[in-house]
Each structure stands twice: as C-alpha cells, then as structure tokens.
Amino acid sequence: MKNAIPQRYAIPHRYATRPGLYFTEDGGADAVVRSETADQVWLCVYEPVDQPTKFFNGAIRIFEDSSTPFINEIHEHEVCTRIIESMYVRETLFRMEGPNYGLWYVHLPKAWDGMRYAYRVDGAWDPKHGLRFNPYKLLLDPYGKGIDGKMELDPAAFSYQCEIGPDRKVRGSAFGAMSTVDALGKVPLSVAIDDRDVTKHDGDPVHPHVPWSKTVLYELHVKGFTKNAPWLPPELRGTYAGLAHPITLAYLQGLGVTSIELLPIQAKQDELFLQEHGRPNYWGYSTLGYFSPEPSYATAAARAKGAGGVRDEVIAMVNAMHEAGFEVIMDVVYNHTCEGGVEGPTVCWRGLDAISYYRRQKNNVGRLEDTTGCGNTFDFTNTHVVTFAVDSLRYWAKRIGIDGFRFDLAASLARLDGDFTKHHPFLYALRSDLLLGNLKLIMEPWDLGPQGWRTGGFGMPFSEWNDRFRDTVRRFWLTDTQPDSDGSVGMQEMATRLCGSADLFATDPGRGCVASINYVACHDGFTLTDLTRYVSKHNEANGENNMDGSNMNHSVNFGVEGPTREPAIERNRERAAMNMLGTLMLSLGTPMMLAGDEFRNTQDGNNNAYSQDNDITWLNWDWLYQTKKTPEMRRLETVSRLIAIRKSLDLYHHEEFFTRLTQLGLFKPSSRVQWYLTDGTTPMEKDWFDTSVRSFAMRLLSANEADILIVINGVDRDQRFRLPSDCEWRCEWSSSVVCGVRPGQGLFTERLNPRDYPDTNWTVSVDEQDPIHELVELVQAELKRQEKLDLPREAALADATDAHKTSVGPASAPTNGPEHETGSLDSAESTEPAVPTDSTSGMATDAVPSEVGDDTADVAEHTSDTDDGPADAPTADGRYDHDLWTIPALSISVMRRIQ
C-alpha cells in the first residue's frame, strides 16, 4: 500500500517523555515507568476471577503448580495471566519494552477507570552496591492517581529475607538474601483514574487568590479538626467532606483567617518503627503516593466508590473552600518517602530504581544518606526526581485546585553535593513554572543535614517559616518574664521581628516582609495554651520514654505544671497567650495560626503528637455549645477581633519592609515607622542594645488612614507612657482585657466592669424555628448526659491534676495579687468613679473572662503601682495631659489615632 506507515513505527503507544498511565482513544492505555538500571519491568493488572477478563485473547495462562518457577515463566511470554485462588484474583502481566532513556513502555489494549495495577521489576540483587531489584515484590506506580489497600507488617513487604517476631519486630539483614515471598495481598496497589474530560472543572468556583499582604494562614489537620465536631453527622466527622461542611466553613469565616494550610493529605503509610510499635503516623509526613489523596480521610461512601470517589471528595472540599473565599495550601513531603532506610519495606521507589531515587552515602553506596531523620532522602540532584516532584505539584494545582504548597524540610530539596544552595535546579524549576511560580510556595527552611538551618536563604518568590520570630516572641513574653531570667530579648530584637525580620528576609531586591511566615505555635511542638501550662514536655503517650520531641520550648507554667483552677495563674496564662497572638497579628509578615489556638486547645503537654490519633490531637468542641460563655469562647472572640483589626488596616497590606538594618545592626531611619520610649523620646543607640529596655511604642504612619501605635509593656508592672502629642489616641485592642483592664488615659489603667459583658452564649439566642435549633438541643443533651454541660474541659483536667500542683522548672509567682494590682478586679483601691465602656474602643463585650471579677467590682480605674515613667501633673482644669497613658503590666496594645 502506497505511503503506508512502516510497521516498526506503527506502534500503538507514543513513547511519552513523562511516566504515568495515559488512557488512549482506542479504549486502552499507555503505561510508562522509569527504571534506569532494571533488566525487565512488567505492568500487572488485577481483576476479580468471577468476571470475564479483558485480556483473554492475548494472554497465556500460567499455573501455580508449574514445574517452571513463576519468575522464569513471566520472562518467556509477552503477556501472561495467572489465578491466585487464595485471594480470588487474576493477575495479568504485560512485559514492557525498554529501557529507552531510562523509560519502560507498554500499551494496554483495554483499560478502565478504577483499574488496579502495579509493577514488578527484575534486575541485579546487590544490596552492598544499592541494587535491590526483586520481581516478587509489587510496586506502586509513582505517578498513580489512586491507591487501594495498605501495607501489612509481613515478610512479603520486604525485599530481603526476614521474619516478623511475636514482638512485631522485623528480624533479618537488609544485606542478606533476596526474599522470594510474593507481596500480592500484603501491599497496596495503584488505581487508574480517567480524568481526560477537560470540561469537568468548568463549573468550579474561581480561586480566591488572596494577596500575600492580606494572607492569614491557619494550619489544621483534616481529621483532627472535625473528628469531634458536634455539628457534623457521624459519617462526616474526620473527613474531607466534614471540612467542607457549611458550618465548618462558617466557623472559619467567623475567625477571619484567609488561607487554610492542610497537614499532608497525600497518601501516607506508617513508618516501620511505628508499625512495629502498633502506632499510626497521624500527621502524615510519610508519603506513599505523591499523586494520590489519603483515603482514610474520605467518607465511607466515597471510599466505597474507590479511588475515584476519594479524589472527587477532595476536589469537592477544595471547591467548597474556594466558594467560601478560602485558599487551600497543602503541606507536602518531597524530602523522603515512607520506605525509610534500607531495612524498610519495598513498596515503590526502592524496587523501581533505588540508585536514581535516593541519595547515598559517598563512602558506602549500600547505605542511604539521611538529612531528614526518616531513613532516606530523595536525590534532587537527579533531573528525573526534580521532574517527578514538579509533575506531582502541577497535578495537585491543576486537577485538584490547590492554591499553594508548604514544603516540609525544604533544605533537603535544595542540596547539591550535600550543600544547600538557593540556586538549586528544583528551586529554579518552581520559580520558572508558569503554574507553580504563581502559587503560594512556603518553605520549612531547615533539615538535619550539615548547616541545616537556612531561614531566609531561599530567596524569591519563596516564603519561609520564621523560627526566629517564634523563639523571640516566646522568650520575650514567657521565659524572659520569669524572676530568674537573664532578659535575653530586648527592644531591638522585638522591633526587628515586628518589622518583618529584614535581617533574615531582605536577601533579594524586591523581596519583602511577607516572605516571613510568622508563627508562635504549629503542629510540631506545644500548642499556644500548653506553652503557658508546661515547662517540660509530657510525651509519655508516644511510647518513647519521653525522649522524643524538643526540649527547647521556651515555655513556662506560671507556678503549676498543667491545668489549674487558680484564677490568678489562669489570668497570667491567658494574658501571655494573648500577648503572643497579639505580637503575631501586629507584626509585618504573614501570620500563621495553629488550629485550636484561638480557643485554648491543649494536647496535655505533648509536644510531638505525631503518632496520637486520638483525643490528644482531635480538637475538642464541647465549649462551643455551652449555655454560658466559656474561657474558650472568650478567647475565640478576642482573637477574631484581633484578626479583624489587622485586616482592616492598610498599613499591613503591603510587602515592603518598614526599615532595614545597617551593617552595624542599627536601624536606618524610616518615613513609615517611628519608635518611642516610655517617656516619649526617640531611642538612642544605647537603648537598642540594652536588653533591659522592654517597654516601647512603635508608630506606623500612613498618608491614607489614621496612624496606629503598637504599645508594648514588657515589664511586670503598670507603666506610664507619654504617647506622641501631635494627636489624641484611643485604645483599639489590648491583651490586658483578659485580666479585666486596658490602657487608661492619665495615671490609671481602665478597669472593665464584668456586668457590662453578658455571660450568655450564642446557643441561648437560637430561635426554635431556626434550622440549627435541633442541633443545639441534641448536642446539649449529649453534653448533659456526659455531665459536661457548662463544665469546661479544664475543670475536669484540673481535677485530674490537683496532686500535680508543685512547680516544675522556673515559674513566676502570681502577679495579680494585692501587691500587683494589674487586672485584679477585687484588689485595687478605687480613686475615680466608674467610666462607661466606650463601644468604639474595640473592647468587645466578649473580651473579659467571667472569672476575672465579681459583682462588687463596679469601678473603671485603679491606681498603678509603678513609680517610674514620665512625671505628670493635672492641667488647670484638673485633667491630665492627653498624651499620658498608663499601660497595664505585660501587655501589648493597639492605639488608633483619633482623626
């Protein structure tokens, strides 16, 4: 036939340059997988025995009782099939062509959505040189979009000969003989998902695209956030669908955050250590599939539909969040895989091409380089590993709708020959990609390798977690307030953090303050509340003899280790927490909150709860449905107001630094920020370097709106401040309201009258006709049955810890007693008549905890015990200078200029 295509080119598959499984128009699929050093690769498809096979005509059947070993037989046939009666499954094996530039190919004549498949790979078994090919092991498709099943702790999951002892420990040498136990039925399989329909996302809501300058991040765990949520039906709790529920989204909107940062939702597998000890990896930093969502977070109904149903629920969750105005940021783990060290199981990369995927020790190639603490490290000097990661990220962004990514242990992703560089090819690949380069890209800027602390070192367009901000704020408001502290953090360090940490992030022309992801608490470490309750970690539940988790927490307990009913201690704790949150929200940069910190969530002192899939990590929502306002509700409303203030101020809606540091570490003058000492003077050079200077004011100037003044009193006594006299000021927000006081004009702080603050919770206002009325009644009935109605969780915890009231480590004495009148509504001498609360001041009626006073505290001002600060005298008409204010002890306040 004239112009016929030569037979050698008339092949049905296209020799794609990217691995993966691609459905084709003829009803089949092209399968492509990378293995540069394998001798042979097979694609294996799994079908039920009681259904007709799709491959009957082309497959040669082989039998289990054949005299020829199974592995030898599959080498002899292009397509063969066998029936495994014990599992009631048919396995059809397609011998692939290759390698062609490291890729292996095959065209399936038939393929379908939901098809289960895996790979088998044969090659050299030479563990000492890093080669661990074993055709008895089933390997996931690294590009697989769905996963079915999970790995069992069984010898079949390991490429080397081993046994599982009665203590669940693996016994055997990773450098010993190759295992000949077939892994089928003991490891997960890949699931094909047909997503060729290019119009399926046409009706999706528009992405919010929140500017960096207006972003408020909120880190949460999909399961933990909703597992105990009383507003959800049981089948939605702990699921993607539960997070997408209207009430869940309404709660997040009420809080005011803009961008939800999800702990890993890519498919995970528990590390060998955890499996041996019968514990799960709750956080999910142990990735099994980089294109597959974690099935366990999906509803039972979605899981019953298979991998496609799980994926659809994730997409629906993202769409619902977009519709509600939230961005969705994914925490991703490309630094290591779930396979662990060489002693770990073989489920994917190790069996495909361990030499190419993993970094190896230079002097012992049989061992893996580990800068992650997880047994292995992906080799990002290999172009194909970089491509693999970029392809995965693009898939989540394009197909699922993700708005950005947070990269776990990102320093490991940017090492060349072991050394970190901001010029790493992977970082350039992210920057230059038309899709990824326009998303929010957040780096965790450290790992366990040499010179692993790289905060500020990634350059544009990356933002980075700022651990220096975290530690500075904790030390200033917690450890440095203790009697035996050396006061290591002073005005200069705090001012640097308030101004966006230019010392760390002003690395590139145009790189701004939003590159600093400011945070005080995250999933890894103490919660905000536990920072004020525990000096020491309490990780006994982790089963590691309390040896795991950080010992450097910069935390205090204010006199009692754990929960307490002591009002003075509780006030001190709450004030410290609000000081830290206030600093977080009033600093330049991008603030990030940990879910639950807005309502006093506790993990009972566990600062490494990665393996706690239980009430330790599941958020407790009992407080939300009480009839009276609990301390949790009080904090929630105060934090919501604080976030609203930040979002209302254009002074924060920019990316530039206010000021930079000179080479000597001194601040250059700025036209947008001014600094004041308590006497109203400008700090001199000696003041910046004096760490004992802990009280100062920061004025942010604006040509378009009213200036604001951030007033910090870092000493444990009321302090008189002389504010700028060119205008009048009013208090917009203060952390001291949790102690029943706020800044007052003149010689006295202003006391808040508890009777002005209703104690009833929102639940009593729900009308019987309201659709939520029935839910409220059901929840309250259950709380009453459990004797939890109007009984805060803290009271129950305090009962359990009454015997544990001795101080552990450094602790401060209560500062709200008669000798320290800050915030004690029952201990001060009244010198002025009561002053009504100013409704425009920003001190909402939700600001004062019910325990801060009693009905006799009907005064608004009290004397200050401070004897320093600027002298003052009444004016001719008996009033005090308008620029003299008294700021409560240990507080941060926002003052707004009165126009």
TrEMBL record:
Check the record and name the Gene3D superfamilies matching this protein. Answer: Glycosidases, Golgi alpha-mannosidase II, Immunoglobulins
Q: Which GO terms describe its molecular function?
A: amylo-alpha-1,6-glucosidase activity
CDD domains on file: AmyAc_Glg_debranch, E_set_GDE_Isoamylase_N
Top-level taxon of the source organism: Bacteria
Q: Name one GO biological process term.
A: glycogen catabolic process
The record's annotation in Pfam families points to:
Alpha-amylase (PF00128)
Q: Which SUPFAM superfamilies match?
A: (Trans)glycosidases, E set domains, Glycosyl hydrolase domain
What the entry lists under SMART domains is as follows: Aamy (SM00642)
User: By its UniProt entry, which InterPro entries does this protein fall under?
Assistant: GH, GH13_cat_dom, GlgX_Isoamylase_N_E_set, Glyco_hydro_b, Glycogen_debranch_GlgX, Ig-like_fold, Ig_E-set
What the entry lists under NCBIfam families is as follows: glgX_debranch
Q: Which PANTHER family match?
A: GLYCOGEN DEBRANCHING ENZYME (PTHR43002)
Q: What is this protein called?
A: Glycogen debranching protein GlgX
